[in-house]
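Human: Here is a favour to ask of a fellow structure person. Comparing notes only helps if you start from a blank page. I am asking you to supply a protein in sequence and structure-token form. Write it directly below this note and I will take it from there.

Assistant:
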Amino acid sequence: MKQNEIMKMLYEVQHPAKGDRNIVELGMVEKVETDGSRVTVTLSFPKHRDPLAEYLIGSTKAAIIRHIPGAEVEVKTIVRDEGAQKHIGLDLGYEELENVKYIIGVASGKGGVGKSTVAVNLAVALARLGYKVGLADADVYGPSVPKMTGTENEMPQAFREGEKEVIVPLEKYGVKWMSIGYFAKPEQALIWRGPMACNALKQMILQVRWGELDFLLIDMPPGTGDIHLSLMHDIPVTGAVIVSTPQAVALADVEKGVNMFRNPGIDKPIIGLVENMAWFTPAELPQNRYYIFGKDGGAEMAEKYGIPLLGQIPLVQGIRESGDDGAPAALSSGPDGEAFVLLAGKVAEAAKGLQPGKGK
């Protein structure tokens, strides 16, 4: 591999906040080094940290790996400050969370249970009840909040405040939204190692001007990996809501989530369990319930682990359609919307017994 060949690949890495100009044109590629199958790229940033730094690092790796599968790619970063060079550090504090009362993680033991759907609709339902709400999409590998809220073509703004950059969340449906998906093109895969994803996640939460909030929901990635551990250690999470379906295979993974939050090294209270797709209700027969994934599995699992069953969300075609259309089902007055409003009420009530985070 020749250095000029690598440089050509990096023309594909565009900076979303710079009119889609690529990092080569912007003069951000400081150095390219090759050694066999190993590629090292050094990116330079201005004195103040770029809020998209982690996105650009991940995109740089992805661009090279697309052309050279199996390549070992390392991306280094330096800051140019009056001729001096130093490594970028993510020394972000909790200043932007000072006016956030409760930080709630929405988690699931496995993918495919509708966790993001529940998180987005719970946020909208809490706003309907009069609470000030924000949601951070921490599912860095599969961000879905932009699509589900109809904000996928929008771009959060950033501004400089003293020595730091601050990102302004988007606002819609009475909720403040932030997602790594706003900074990545829908078709672009985010190929990040765990630490890079964790740093991007921290930026999506700690570098955002949330303002005064009653609830900040964090839509966590499915599973129980290093991103979850980093989140629990680096973010003052108040408690967690676990989402599952009645299926035995999904409920088996609930145990992993419960054990993670109850691990002595994390020790975060579990607010309760949400049973999603609890039954199927056809629109033309709203009183009918068909338990196609099993019945009362969530209730039995909640009782087994001594956690409240916060709600049972029906499988209604409108929930899927509204999510695809960017209008959350919680906005409606139908059975799906009412189910989310009831869930929001229970979450708000349960939060009163929790110790508030870094805010009030």
In short: Residues 259 and 267 are 9 Å apart (CA to CA). Residues 335-351 form the longest helix (17 residues).
